[in-house]
Amino acid sequence: MKRAALLPLLLLAACAAPPADEAQGPSSQTPLAREAARIIPEQRFTTVDYLIVDKSERLMVAYAGGQPVKAWRGLQFGDAPKGHKQFEGDERTPEGTYTIEGRNPGSAYHLSLKVSYPNAADRAFARARGRSPGGDIFLHGQPNSLPFGRMPGDWTDGCIAFSNDEIEELWRIVPDGTAIEIRP
Questions:
Q1: How many CB atoms sit inside 10 A of residue 113's CB?
Q2: End-to-end alpha-carbon separation of the chain, Å?
Q3: How big is the CA angle at 93 (ends 66 and 33), to the nearest 5 degrees?
Q4: Nearest to residue 53, comparing CAs of 98, 104, 90, 120?
Q5: 3-state SS track over the chain
Q6: Alpha-carbon distance values, 37 to 45, 46, 150, 181 (Å)
Q7: pLDDT digits (tens, 9 = 90+) for 96-124
């Protein structure tokens, strides 16, 4: 008899809404992934004015006028992708805020956009340790010698690699002087 009385209570409890704190809990998406999800596919833009790269997500989001307009996933980094680039040859991709300071149509990789690494703090850090901070950090496509597709895994010396189609799009929409924030 007691079991029959409990059954309606269990059914009623199963239909109840979750507790308020559980219903409004944190999203399983990271903040940058949430930004990428806000992109309106048909939104028109000709250039972007800010780039955010998240190394751990292998994601870059481009902004125009403060709004996310485009996202690229599956980015490739240096052979040692974790941590901030500190020295020449450490195979790391820098972290921090830099600018796109030039472009190289004759690159050994399919097009390249130069990142302003090293900045003054990067040079001072390396100098204090008697080392070179390195340089020549770019957003670029795949090696020109690669007939098609993508190199597997992380393979650059600290640059950020895209497919050739992706870097062609970036070449068109990212003007020199664009800020790029690279996050761990």
A1: 25
A2: 61
A3: 40
A4: 98
A5: CHHHHHHHHHHHHHHCCCCHHHHCCCCCCCHHHHHHHCCCCCCCCCCCCEEEEECCCCEEEEEECCEEEEEEECCECECCCCCCCCCCCCCCCCCEEEEEEEEECCCCECCEEEECCCCHHHHHHHHHCCCCCCCCEEEECCECCCCCCCCCCCCECCCEECCHHHHHHHHHHCCCCCEEEEEC
A6: 17, 20, 25, 19
A7: 999 999 999 999 999 999 999 999 999 99
pTM above 0.85, yes or no: no
Question: Tokens 């130069």 sit at which residue?
Answer: 114
φ/ψ of residue 35, rounded to 5: -60, -45
